[in-house]
Design a protein that fits this description.
74% of the residues lie in helices and 2% in strands. The chain is an all-alpha fold and 323 residues long. It has a domain of 180 residues: Transmembrane di-heme cytochromes, Chain C (Fumarate Reductase Cytochrome B subunit), CATH 1.20.950.20. A two-stranded antiparallel ribbon has the order 1-2. The longest helix has 37 residues.
Length: 323
């Protein structure tokens, strides 16, 4: 009986050792297979963004990990957003300090109540269309970029969600309208905005911002021409990059979309910061400046002080016209 039990025990041990070796060999084979399929080399290939095989057809359909997306996120969140905010706040603070120190640029002589036509009705309609669209796009764009940091907690999730959805819709649909209105403005006003020697002297004298000096200027002075070209190049850049973002199904890769987003944001922030100066000078900064774009006419005293060459040209033309 003891011999039988001993022999059974030996057989059981042999069977156990054999099965353990077989299982271990199977585990090693399985591990080797997995390592070959999803090991370090496999994930390295995916991380590099190499395309694999996919049943889904289309641009970048086989790319499982978009590495460039992390670079875009870092650039947008670490550089564009914070430094853009610093630039906007810096310009606003500078203009406020300047206004508190210098105040509004007043007319040197009393108004004559004699009006000179400066802008046609079409020019004013074009200007205010561009201005309203620009301000709307600026507010919605800044909400999309910064709103989650300030407005979300203030408005609450429900109102915030509806507000930001509205911002996105307005931004996407008004963008092409802004581009069209801007192109009309560029074509209509291009002839007035080429620089000349008068503009150089205007810049040398600082545009008459400080003191009582009033450098000569034609229909538009050097500062207005600078704003025109900033709006032209900045607006065209914003429009093209915005169209790429508006219509993502025209064959753009994700990398192109990401760079378009960065270019769109940087150009917009620069143009918004510059627009603060334009708005300030045209409203609180200069007496009588806004009247030209609201009524189409300016007082003779304003014209002689700020655009003397244009004023003389208008007076000469008026004198030489046949009765």
């Amino acid at each position: 009986m003891k011999r039988l039990s001993l022999s059974h025990l030996i057989i059981i041990c042999l069977v156990y050792l054999t099965s353990s070796n077989v299982a271990l060999a199977a585990d090693k084979a399985s591990e080797a297979k997995v390592s070959g399929f999803a090991g370090a080399e496999y994930w390295r290939v995916i991380k590099d963004g190499n395309e694999g095989t996919s049943q889904v057809k289309g641009i970048e359909a086989g790319v499982l990990i978009n590495v460039e997306g992390e670079y875009w996120r870092h650039l947008r969140n670490k550089w564009v957003s914070p430094y853009g905010a610093y630039a906007l706040l810096g310009v606003l603070c500078t203009l406020l300090i300047f206004y508190l120190i210098v105040g509004q640029k007043k007319l040197d002589h009393p108004r004559t109540n004699k009006k000179i036509k400066r802008w046609s009705q079409l020019d004013r309609a074009n200007h205010w269309t561009v201005a309203i669209l620009f301000i709307t796009l600026a507010l919605t764009g800044l909400s999309l970029l910064y709103g989650k940091f300030f407005l979300k907690g203030l408005l609450g999730d429900s109102i915030w969600g509806n507000y930001i959805a509205l911002c996105k819709i307005l931004h996407n649909y008004l963008g092409p309208l802004f581009m069209l209105a801007l192109l009309i403005m560029i074509v209509r006003w291009l002839k007035h905005n080429f620089f000349n020697a008068t503009d150089l002297r205007w810049f040398i004298k600082g545009g008459g911002i400080f003191g009582n000096a009033h450098p000569s200027a034609g229909f538009l002075n050097g500062g207005e021409k600078v704003w025109f070209w900033l709006l032209t190049f900045g607006g065209v850049t914003i429009s093209i990059s915005g169209l790429i973002l508006d219509f993502p199904l025209f064959g753009q890769t994700r990398e192109i979309m990401q760079w378009s987003n960065i270019i769109h944001a940087v150009s917009s922030l620069i143009l918004i910061a510059a627009s603060f100066g334009h708005i300030y000078i045209g409203t609180a900064g200069t007496e009588g400046a806004l009247e030209g774009m609201t009524t189409g006419y300016v007082d003779e005293s304003w014209a002689k002080q700020h655009h003397d060459l244009w004023y003389e040209e208008k007076k000469t033309k008026s004198t030489n016209e046949p009765m």
